[in-house]
Amino acid sequence: MAKLAHAQWSSRMTFVLAAAGSAVGLGNIWKFPYMVGESGGAAFVFVYLLCIALIGLPILVSEWLLGRRGQKNPASTMSELARTANKPKAWAIVGISGIIGAFLILSFYSVIGGWSLYYTLNSVSGTFSGQDADGIGALFNGMLSNPGLLLLGHSVFMLLVIGIVARGVTKGLEGAVRILMPVLALLLVVLIGYGMSTGHFGEALTYMFNPDWSKLTAETVLAALGHAFFTLSLGMGIMMAYGSYLGKEINLLQTARTVIIMDTVIALGAGLAIFPIVFANNLDVASGPGLIFVTLPLAFGNMDGGMILGLMFFLLLTFAALTSAISLLEPVVEFIEERSPLSRVMATIVAGVGAWLLGVAALLSFNVWSEPLMFGLGVFDLLDTLTSKIMLPLTGLGAILFTAWCLERDSVEAELGLSATGKSIWNIIARYLAPAGVIAVFITGLI
Ligand code: PFF
């Protein structure tokens, strides 16, 4: 039976919300603040912003442009565009590795989504109240060493994702982002308001925006570059898949600017919500990936109104993780739907259950299956390393190289509506600067 014509986003605003829903996730709220803390503060923030503008923006625009031209899943889009441009069919690899990467990321992203759900419940039940650092640490370690609990969180989270994606792009994604994004923004504003009341907001501002350049190292720069990639959901076929639903009349540069501003504001907002609490409670800024799970509950458990604030914070994190996870499943489902006789619902179930199974292996690596599997890494770390250090940079590099070097230059410039100066800037950045930056991340990531 012929499939219906490719659906389109009902409005530019809905598209912006969906793309921002993908970009804004654990990367912004969980990862960004702890990376700022580990990398010494404002100097990292500054370089990160530069990377977003000079590398993230052109790659985001490239992925959308490719997706909109191809009108299919990332793999078919790339092979189709390569054929029309008389380039080797091997360019399809860019699409395929993006889809595989999205599938792999979804499996362990859902595990963290499960943590977030568990912490939401803990906030409601008042588990944090009156606890000291040891108690909060024990809660986190207790969770990690309990496979049944991790499995439950992961399963509930994945079921939510499957349920939303199965309803289809218009009903599922639009409905979800319309509700989730504004709630998320509102919760952040409330938390920043609390941060202001702690008396340590100024300290947080200085920490985040007054650079101490002596803290800047080559490693910090590369960490900032890598995070710019992760936070914008680049190199995973996601933005390409979203672009395939994008109408011709949408201005890509303007839209990318809006999404990037939303993503950046949320990340900075998360920092501004978290650091005053960290400083007010004399907590360690550089405590790493555990920052929000081990440190914040301590603050929530010992402050007035901490139960409500804790609940709001982890709800916010769960919502953000959910919208990103929805976007991770989307390209995989689109691919299966177009390449097989399966309906959207069946394709979603097949992809979702597959990622869920891999996630089960990942969560077991925190407890019963903790011995290294390969290269000294367990399943969880292996999935993370393989995707973020190898697949993500290479796929994004492929997308921008193809756009800048393989597509007809005039037509790309016309599609982006560039002025004469705009054309020169675009060509310098898209042809040389951004690819060189990505290559640097990739190489340093491997050594
Ligand atoms: N951008 C999302 C975040 O910042 O949490 C995570 C993410 C989604 C990364 C999709 C990569 C990706 F392909």
Question: Topology, please?
Answer:
Blueprint: H1 12-23, H2 26-38, H3 42-70, H4 74-84, H5 92-124, H6 133-144, H7 147-166, H8 169-197, H9 201-209, H10 218-231, H11 238-243, H12 252-280, H13 291-301, H14 306-339, H15 344-364, H16 379-406, H17 409-416, H18 420-446
Helix pairs in contact: 1-8, 1-12, 1-14, 2-10, 2-12, 3-4, 3-9, 3-10, 3-12, 3-16, 3-18, 4-5, 5-7, 5-14, 5-15, 5-16, 6-13, 7-8, 7-14, 7-15, 8-12, 8-14, 9-12, 10-18, 13-14, 14-15, 15-16, 16-18
Bound molecules: 4-fluoro-L-phenylalanine.
User: Can you count the helices?
Assistant: 18
Cα shape: globular
Helix content: over 70%
Give the CATH class: Mainly Alpha
Give the low-pLDDT segments: 1-5
State Rg.
Answer: 21 Å
Mean pLDDT: 87
Number of strands: 0
Distance between the termini: 50 Å
The CATH architecture would be Orthogonal Bundle
Structural class per helix/strand content?
mainly alpha
Q: How much strand?
A: under 5%
Question: Which distinct ligands sit in these coordinates?
Answer: 4-fluoro-L-phenylalanine
Order of helices and strands: HHHHHHHHHHHHHHHHHH
